[in-house]
Amino acid sequence: MPSRDSIPFTASRPRGRGKLFKTAPDTSPVTAPAPTEPLPSIVAPPSPTAAALPPSPEGSVTAEAAVELRRPIVCPPLDAVFAPGGSVATLLGPRYRPRAGQVQMSALIRDVLQTGQHAILEAGTGIGKSFAYLIPILWTGAPAIVSTSNKALMNQLWDKDIPQLRKIAPRPFKAALLKGRSNYVCALRLEDFRKQPSLPDFDDNYALLEAALQAEPSGDCERMSLPLSLTARLTVSSRDCEGQKCAQFKQCFYERAKREAVSADLVVTNHALLCYNVLLMDNQLLPVRPVLVIDEAHQLVPYAINALTLRLEHELFWNVVNHKRTREAAEETDLLETAREGYDDFFRIVARQRPSSWTDDEDINKWALQGELQEGLALWNTLKQVHDVLQRQTQRHEDGELDVLVNQSAELVVTLEALARPEPADHIRFCELDLNLSDAGPRAYHAQRSPLEVANVLAYTLFKPWPRVVCTSATLGINHNLAWFQRQVGAVDTESEVIIATLRSPFNYAEQMLLYTPPGLEPVYGAKEPEYATRLADAVQQLVETSRGRALVLCTSRRRMLDLYARLSPVLSVHYPCYCQGELPQPEIIAQFKAAGNAVIFATRSFWEGINIPGDALALVILDKIPFLPLRDPVVQRHDALIQRRGGNPFQELQLGSAILTLRQGAGRLIRAETDRGVIALLDSRVLTKRYGRQIIHSLPEGCHTTDFTAVEAFFRHW
User: Residue 253 and residue 220: Cα distance in Å, rounded?
Assistant: First the structure.
């Protein structure tokens, strides 16, 4: 194992006795800086403040166990399972389609099991990758974890794929679903709720809740389909949980889910929980298993960065400072008032660093924090005193509520120092302004510190301890090359060679789709932007009218989305229902879009992936421009500088790769089945005039590429 000094990571977790958070957070947790002064009295909780490289990335795994985990897993040939007339064909019946890519991927997973190698597998849309990796795992009985990035895929695995495979698997297996704590009903809050019949709408909510618990005993709020208002009343975050000192600990739904996961052969989880486990928990929440499949792996880096981000959360600060137990512990001192004043002072100086040229209508609503912030250090010092006061109280009382406050105050202490002191060159401190808040008070400002890259830490905490990590997605490559993704996640210089493969989609893109780029339409900003915005809107309107609605208009910014919606919805809605992201929850918009059959959705980043609309309801995907990262974003600027310092090319390493993967995700919304047809319109002529344009075109589905709008008209006319 390399020495700690050789690991390019700046955080350290203060070690000591006492209860730490050993449960998963409701949001992705974050990392803590190494304090410049030792704080022996503070044991920072791993959620969400401490993120050190553990002494052993394998956590509690012994050397003997590590050897056992890496033993070859013998898997018989599986071609017959996928063959016509085989068990999969029998299972699926008329829906079955033989897919060469699925067989190839299954064979590669078989190689992974037998050789103990990592793998990066790009599996095109329609291959059926979940069966391709689940069947070798379940047929051998290898203990495994499958992590996904979104609820839709998690639900597909749990509700459809796994139950189906139980019918044909050669051996019985136990599967478990594990999410973060705040996804489950809190047994303590449930007990309190049942004792409050005077609450408004209690009878209706009580009946709904009891019926939901009977139907879904797991206590998973999403699977219980509880209203958001009731979910908020019945759930608790990790930082608010009293753990084993809770009076309802033995009845805890989340703890039960963890126990079931430990004993299961196959665990289905999500990237947020996986990154929390790998980066912050020494692999103790989800112990190292022989196989880890990371589906939708193109999202792994953002989740890892999010997990290693420190945020000063307003609710947390005020909960600690204003809590009854904190006030009792501080007695009659001015300590808490000093903390409140220091909090305002800190955000006053943060707001003062906002660039004078910055305007509220820009998409980039954040700025880098500069230098040492004395107001932040003063608040940090005050919060250390608050923590010490609470810590002394826990020495007098065995109290779960006090333990929670001690951990929360420790989190604030570590976070404040990270925000107050200059960060390492591979991190950035910045503040983001919430433009939806009417006032400019502290609650509108969100200060945080993030790593710029996670390749080195993932190499050490993920690819080193886990014997077989399979990263798969429909979009991992740049121009059919997976090296970019491999570097991003740190899957290089591993102990064994990494299996790398690109498996083509079974869809016939050349016949099923058309790729259209209008010449002479290039993004323009400044004085000529209004003219460009008008020409862009005209192009969108022309396309939507030609496709007779059935369109998804994907924009690279919220501002552009709102502008196009404002310009076009009054005209288009005469014939085609128009929806704008944010008007309704995403599932409702999608449901109404499918039901209408000729609607138009104007959306931005969250609709670029994870949307599945097979059939004739979607025939046109419009991408407003190449989604390069905003050059004015301070995070992008700092990342550019980091790449330049090591002699790299920021455009190739950061901008182009990110843009291509985003474009591929957006374009992938169109063809979802063998019978789908449609047009992808990339309204950015730079792909025709810039040298990098050829890489972008070659990375998109291989449909017919045209610059002639009459070809688009002919495509829809003959459909």
Answer: 8
